[in-house]
Amino acid sequence: MNVEMAYLLGMILGNGEIQQNSSETKVTIDIPHKNLYTDDMKDTAIYVKASLFDIQTILEPLIGQHLSQSETKHSTKITFTKPNNEYVMREILRLVGSGTHHSTMKMNEELFSITSDEKKALLRGIADVTGYIRASNIAFKKESKQHRVYIEIPGNWYMVIDIANMLKAVDIPVQTIDFGHPNFRDSNLDKYNEGKKYYWKKEHQVKIYANEFLPIGFNIKHKQEALEKYSEELIKKNPNMKTHKFYWEKPIRIKTKPNHPCENDEALPEEIRGKHFESWTDLAGLLGYGK
Predict the structure, then answer these.
(1) More confident residue, 240 or 201
(2) What are phi and psi of 70, to 5 degrees?
(3) pLDDT of 170-188, one tens digit each?
(4) Mean of pLDDT values over 109-129
(5) Under 8 Å CB-to-CB from 263, ≥6 apart: which residues?
(6) Residue 144 to residues 234, 239, 246: CA-CA distances in angstroms?
(7) ∠ CA(170), CA(174), CA(175), 5° rounding?
(8) Shortest CA distance to 10 belongs to which of 220, 221, 269?
(9) Which of 138, 242, 246, 285 has the maximum number of C-beta atoms within 10 A of its C-beta?
(10) Residue among 246, 212, 43, 34 nearest 123 (CA)
(11) Residue 230 near residue 147 (C-beta atoms within 8 A)
(12) d(Cα 84, Cα 20) in Å, to the nearest integer?
């Protein structure tokens, strides 16, 4: 393992797909343009394209070949193909839990024993392809803005906990996790009562205060610029704000929620199916994120 391999694994775990035939394996990594323009109205696609040179410098010596690129309005894809029997490919398959799509991948337990720098590189790879930062919504109805990094995970419940625990391993607290669960994405049944029964089936969002995410950072230029800008703004506006707290180190805000008819939905993991949750911390703790 090295930081380059850790970064590649993070990109694959975050938004990758693996297609394997009898002799070769093709890896595709999707870098979405979350918004077409940055907050200061610069073209996101141009920023991503400019960042690819740095990414190529990291990955191409590792894989021993040129990365293919393709671009659409909403994303940039990078691709490489290697023989199945090559060491780097065998390691990739092993360390992503033999999943073929980021929605089915899981971090191999071995990844939690790599060095701190390698863990940060892995998290940076995830953030580059599925994280974003912007001027945040008001957290907990406070007067001042509290900007956060959002890491989005579509569908993969176990990856949410893997990411939270990897952040914990490098001493970065999660501010909150917005689970794609009926108790959190339709907590008052408003959408359900409008006939939108499955409105709650959305991506999970792991949220981290901007200043806490600085040790990880981004290789995508516009994301890194925004991270530095919003971190400085957060600290300047909130000099006494204590962001460095894990949920078990601070009071838990509990708001009673009505039971939701979809708490038994088959799409929910067996461990939580049929259970009601008042707080994201209870759900995260049950799945394995905690003290």
Answers:
(1) 201
(2) -145, 150
(3) 999 999 999 999 999 989 9
(4) 96
(5) 182, 183, 273, 274, 275, 276
(6) 9, 11, 21
(7) 145
(8) 220
(9) 246
(10) 212
(11) yes
(12) 8
